Amino acid sequence: MKIAMNKGYFFIILTAFLYSTQEITAKMLSSAKLDPFQVVFIVFLIAAIMMTFQAGKDLKKRRIKIHPKDIGYFFVLGTLCIPVSLSLMQIAVGYIQASVVAIIFSTNAVFTVPFAYLLLKEKITKSTALSMGLCLLGVAAILNPFSLDGMSDKSNLIGIGLSALSAVSFSLYSVLAAKKIHYYGGYILNCFSFFCGVLVIFGLLLVTDRPVFSGITLDTLEILLYMGICIKGFGYIFYLKAIRDTSAVIASTVFLIKTALAPLLAFLILGDRLYLNTILGIVLVFAGSCLGYRAKSKGVQA
Length: 302
Description:
The protein has helices at 2-20, 22-31, 36-62, 68-92, 98-105, 108-119, 126-143, 154-178, 181-184, 186-207, 218-245, 248-251, 253-269, 276-301. By secondary structure, it is mainly alpha-helical. Helix 5 runs antiparallel to helix 13.
């Protein structure tokens, strides 16, 4: 048991590191002028292909047959996750620092609370309400309504708005996925929803005459492969292993670690400047996430 827990903590650290590089690599591709929808299409296509073998095994093990209504459900999930949430995140890094996008996106775990209340009938406790409040204050500090350190120009406001929409839409995706995750399992649900989302965004690329594979250089291909294989592929596999060896609640500390680690990595790799109001925002979001984690822990133990 102790060995399994130690392995679980190792997978948590690995996942947190990989997830913390998501916005950084997205910024690199944005700087290389790759189309954001093109980037998301390629990255999730790679991740979906990686999960196909395990999803096929799980279908046999669980004796699940996929019906038209299941496909409709997967298309809703895939559309929310890929053409909406992650595409908005990819666009956002073109406007603001990767570290700021990472902090705002990390609040998605907190914004699942109102959606869980509406769709899953989960109660909102004082702790979860306070957790949401702290995270909102953190985002407000980063938004900097008083124009401290020049963070509130039009470009930054657009980037912050897109990041917030990305976090909220990912929260809705997470709650809808939670409704049937126990039936399908993680590999089946994500593999099918990823393929459906990829189909939607592929149609969008064709209709809007955007590039699909053109414009990719050797340098950008390396980043795309890293994002698809490491962040979206192995990152998710490691996260499932962390849940298996610890618990869903303990594994969710991945996002606490990311809140602090992502800005540090962005500073070291991209040279992102950490403004005073951004640091305050990090502290508030981290505190809110910690409170939310404690609330979930108590809920599991109750």
